[in-house]
Specification:
The chain is mostly helical and 267 residues long. Helices cover 69% and strands 0% of the residues. The chain is elongated, with a radius of gyration of 22 Å.
Length: 267
């Protein structure tokens, strides 16, 4: 995962080709010294499109994850702190959002708008905040019943001070693990929807778009699909393993016995 991210960040150091420049005389070439991963159907360098497309795919995914994490955390805090009717109403909305398959909701919302990264991001944010809200709300209810929180209330601490000083520090480890896991899920969603034409639009380089463009030429130049597919696989696998590692490092109950108490120090 880390090598893929570093390659994308420092793309100009590894390729000098313009990722959108078309050279029709070089179309569908195999690996060569000039084009280490070959060229696509329009003669564009696959390596440059992979690296610059990774910037877009990873940046888009990171943006969506951070926005959904912030929105979900604020809504979860609001629900847990207010309680009563407001809490019930917010949780019923969360239940409705979670009850439907998220990819179908994203497809519906994105399909109703003009195809593009903006509409895709809006659709994913609209759906993706609910898991964060549920986790934060549950932690908020648990912390509110503790003695030191009741003591803070008795001396005049406001609800938002309690949230900032007591709730968020207790839920931060869980949120961090969720961010890693949601990153891998959202990356697959971004690539999948771009593959279907609802995300990045030609000639923008993006991993899902590269898969869509190369599927008709898989037999002639396999790298046009193998390369972006491998990048997606390695990145999602790495982020999923990192999320599991964070969860196990801070959750003693879920940690296998053979890992021992020093597991957190290995991360």
């Amino acid at each position: 995962m880390v090598p893929v991210v570093l390659l994308c960040l420092f793309a100009p150091l590894f390729t000098q080709h313009n990722p959108v420049e078309q050279v029709l005389s070089d179309r569908l070439q195999g690996p060569s010294r000039e084009h280490p991963l070959g060229t696509d159907l329009l003669g564009r360098d696959v390596l440059s499109r992979l690296l610059y497309g990774g910037r877009l795919s990873l940046g888009m995914t990171l943006f969506v994850v951070m926005i959904t994490a912030v929105v979900g955390t604020l809504i979860g805090l609001l629900s847990g702190l207010l309680g009563g009717f407001a809490d019930e109403f917010i949780m019923r909305v969360v239940d409705v959002v979670i009850a439907f398959p998220s990819i179908l909701l994203v497809l519906t919302i994105a399909g109703l708008q003009k195809p593009g990264l903006g509409s895709l991001a809006a659709a994913m944010v609209t759906v993706g905040w609910s898991p964060f809200a549920r986790v934060v709300r549950g932690e908020c209810l648990k912390v509110r019943s503790m003695a030191y929180v009741e003591a803070a209330v008795s001396i005049g601490a406001t609800q938002w001070r309690i949230a900032a000083m007591h709730v968020l520090p207790n839920v931060m480890n869980t949120l961090l693990a969720m961010v890693f896991l949601r990153f891998s899920q959202n990356l697959l969603a971004v690539a999948g929807l771009s593959f279907l034409g609802l995300g990045a639009q030609p000639p923008t380089p993006e991993w899902g778009m590269m898969l869509s463009e190369g599927r008709d030429y898989m037999e002639l130049v396999p790298l046009t699909m193998i390369v972006p597919g491998t990048a997606i696989f390695l990145t999602t696998l790495g982020m999923s393993l990192a999320g599991d590692g964070v969860r196990l490092a801070f959750d003693r109950a879920a940690r296998p016995r053979w890992l021992g108490s020093g597991y957190a120090g290995l991360l």
